[in-house]
Amino acid sequence: MSYGNSSPRSVSKTRCDVQIRWMIRRDMSEVLDIERQCFEFAWSEEDFLCCLRQRNCIGMVAERQERIVGFMIYELLKSQLHVLNFAVAPWSRRQGVASQMVEKLVNKLSQQRRQEISLEVRETNLAAQLFFRSQGLHADGVLRGHYEDTEEDAYVMRYQLYPDDEQILPFVPRNRIARIGEDYDAEAA
Known about the structure:
Largest sheet: 7 strands, mixed
CATH class: Alpha Beta
Radius of gyration: 21 Å
Strand order of the largest sheet: 1-2-3-4-5-7-6
CATH architecture: 3-Layer(aba) Sandwich
Distance between the termini: 42 Å
Order of helices and strands: EHHEEEHEHEEH
CATH superfamily: Gcn5-related N-acetyltransferase (GNAT)
Strand content: 25-35%
């Protein structure tokens, strides 16, 4: 299992460089077009706008040659980034676009703040499950009947900056008075 200590790896052999930037209003028509091509039960424009109006939601697009080729919507939670929507245009798949998008998310994690990425993947979306697994995410649980449109289950997938057994402890300054106290405690025991 891969965690934050190793960088996400791309399963594709070809890699096109994309610019990943904040989503702006004029991107919406291309984003909606990709959404409709990628998902049977696509978000509407109102779904996107409602989500993006929340102050903790971020929309980003992957752009190549002035054309949107992918997007992601995620929310900033206290200790994690929760991906709400993630898609790459069918004509741009297997070119490293999604890997660069995941890499952008991983680079937003930090020891002091958010240390985890979480997302849900439909039980029937094997391609997404395998892709996210290749990027270092692991299945963490099942949400029964998660999707209202089909009552389909969802797998919860997570990426952790540090595995639970490798948590970096906060820095605690050591001074001579603290050492004297430790020596005294050791002698008393």
